[in-house]
Amino acid sequence: MVQVAHNREGNGSAAGNVHLLRHPKRLSDSDAVHFSIRIENYAHIRRAYGEEGARAALSGVQRMLVDLFRADGIVVPEANGEIDVLIWNVEALGAGSLPDACRVWLDKFCWLAPLLSIEASGHFIHVWVSGRWEIPGALMQAHGLNAGQSGACNIGFSGAWPDDRSDWSDRYRSDVGLVSGLLSGIISGSADDTGRQELMLAWQPVCDAAGPELVLYREALVRLLDDDGKAHPPGDVFLALERLGFARVVDHYVVSRVIDELEQAPDVILAVNISAQSVRHDAWWDEIKSRLVALPDVARRLVLEITETAAMPSVSGAVRFVTSMRRLGCRIALDDFGTGYASIRQLLAFSPDFVKIDRFFVRRASVCAAEGAMLPHLIGIGQALGATVVVEGVETQEQADIVLAAGGRWQQGYHWGRPSLLRTWHRAPNGERSDATLAGSWPENPIISHGAAYDR
Prior knowledge:
By secondary structure, this protein is of the alpha/beta class. It is built from 15 helices and 18 strands. It folds into 2 domains: 2-153, Alpha-Beta Plaits; 179-439, EAL domain (TIM Barrel), CATH 3.20.20.450. The chain has helices at 42-69, 98-112, 137-142, 168-188, 237-244, 247-264, 283-294, 296-300, 315-328, 344-350, 359-367, 369-372, 374-384, 397-405, 435-439; strands at residues 2-5, 19-22, 33-39, 73-77, 82-87, 118-120, 123-125, 129-135, 149-153, 198-208, 215-225, 231-232, 270-275, 302-307, 331-337, 354-357, 388-391, 410-411. The strands form 4 sheets. Strands 10-11-13-14-15-16-17-18 form an 8-stranded mixed beta barrel, surrounded by 7 helices. It has a 5-stranded antiparallel β-sheet with strand order 4-5-3-8-9. The protein is globular and about 75 Å long.
C-alpha cells in the first residue's frame, strides 16, 4: 500500500511536502516510535540562501531520513525547519532496549547530519539538527515495559544568531564554503575533485629546552589533504567552524581519532585541541567518556587543550566538564594564554595541568626587549597556579634561549620539530625517554577516581 505523508497545511502535491512510503499494512501512531527533528540553523540558511535554500535544507534532511528508514516508517516535513518521523519497524533503530536504541540512533543522526552536504542553487549547505523521541505506552507494553518514555538529543547550537550587518549573508556563505570540504571529507574518509578534503593528523612535540630528548607530549594538529595529495594547515577553517557553530562535531571526531592512536601506542602521550564551544557536556561526549572509563591507561595519556578563540558559552558548565574529564584521568591544558578569551579567570576556574603561552609573546620578545619583559611574568603566573607552562611558537635558537632565560623550560615550535604526519614515536632514537616514562614524573592528578562512573 502507498502512504502519502502530508504536512499540516495539507499541501500534499508540493515538492518537499510529500513523501511516498510503502508499508505492508496500515498501523496506528500508537504502534510507532515518534521522532521530531529540528534544523537549528534553519533561520541562518533562510537568511543566507533565501527560501529556496531553506526548502533545499528541509528536503535534504527529509531525504537522509527516507534513505535510512525506507519502508519502515513515514517522514513528514513541517514548518520552520521541523520534520516528524514515525517508525513502525523498531528493529531498524538498532539493537538493545527500545529506549536505548532510540537514544543511540538519535545521537548518531544528530552527529551525522552536519557532515552531509546539501546542494542548493550552486552552493553546498550544512545543517545542524536536534531532536526528540517518544515511545507510546502501548508500544512500550508490547516490549515488556510499563510506561511510555521520551528523550532528546539537544546538543545545543553554538552559532551566532543572524545580525543586521549588510554583509552577514556573504560572510555566512563564505564560511560554509570554507568548511564544507572538511565536513564532507570526514564522512567520506577521502578527498576528491568535488572539494572534499581528507582530515589528517600531524604530530608536534613539546620538548625540554634543557634536554630536548625529553618529550612532555605530542600535540595532534589537523591537516587537510587535497585530492592532489598535498597536506596543508586548515588556516581559517576552524575560525569559520566556530562562527557557524559547527566546531563541536569536528572536535568530537578528532578526539576519537586521538584516542584510537593512544590505544595503539601504549608509550605515548598525546594532546588534542578542542574549541571553547566544545567544553560542555553533551550526548556526543558520552561515547568518548565511556571509552575512557573502560581504558583508564588511555585517559591518563590524553591531554585536552582548550583553545579559546571563541567565547565559552558557560564558565560554570565548562568547569563541570573539565572536572569530569580530569576525574577520568585526562589532563587539561589552557591554550593561547595571554590572547583571545583565555584569562586569569579561566586559570583560576579550571586549575589546568598545563598553560600554553601564545606564540605572539615569543615573537615580540625576539624583536623588542621591553615587550619581552612580559614573557617571564606570564610564565610566572602559570607556574604560581601550579601548572606546567609550555611556550609556543619557538622557531629559532635565539628564541629558545630567550624563552629559557624567562623560565620557559617546556617549548614547542619549528625549532624543536615541525608537525609531521609520521608517528615519530615509533622510531625514537636510542636513549630517548618515552612520553609514558616522563609522564610518571607528573604530579598525581588529585581528582582521578579510577573505576568510578563519570559525571553526566
